[in-house]
């Protein structure tokens, strides 16, 4: 059996996804990660003004720039497109 089959609950990521995320952010400072998540959270929209977060290849360059965009793409790509940076916090 692989860890892919196990998940503690719907709100907690699968072990493989958590591992991929940790590998992606290894060596990055906590401050840039926090800056990235705060920038993402600041653009989340509202029920009246929905924001589509389903395709990181589209929303990252549209909503982030510089080192925040670079870190977001790193999380997305190093996780083999399993971890959407929008949901990494």
Structure report:
This protein has 89 residues and is mostly helical. 49% of the residues lie in helices and 0% in strands. It has helices spanning 15-25, 30-41, 56-63, 66-78. Helix 1 runs antiparallel to helix 4 (66-78), helix 2 (30-41) crosses helix 4 (66-78) and helix 3 packs antiparallel against helix 4. The longest helix has 13 residues, at 66-78. The mean pLDDT is 84.
Uncertain regions spanning at least 5 consecutive residues = none
SSE order, as H and E?
HHHH
The number of helical runs is 4
Helix-strand makeup class: mainly alpha
Q: What proportion of the residues is helical, as a percent range?
A: 40-55%
Radius of gyration: 14 Å
Strand content: under 5%
For the secondary structure, the number of strands is 0
Distance between the termini: 28 Å
Overall average pLDDT: 84
Entry summary:
The protein has 89 residues and is an all-alpha fold.
Provide tags for this entry.
single chain, 89 residues, mainly alpha
What topology emerges from the helices and strands here?
Elements: H1 15-25, H2 30-41, H3 56-63, H4 66-78
Helix pairs in contact: 1-4, 2-4, 3-4
């Amino acid at each position: 059996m692989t860890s892919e089959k196990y998940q503690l609950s719907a709100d907690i990521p699968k072990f493989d996804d958590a591992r991929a995320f940790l590998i992606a952010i290894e060596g990055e400072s906590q401050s840039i990660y926090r800056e990235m998540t705060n920038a993402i959270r600041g653009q989340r929209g509202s029920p009246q003004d929905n924001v589509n977060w389903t395709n990181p290849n589209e929303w990252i360059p549209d909503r982030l720039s510089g080192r925040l965009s670079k870190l977001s793409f790193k999380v997305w790509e190093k996780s083999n497109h399993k971890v959407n940076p929008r949901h990494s916090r």
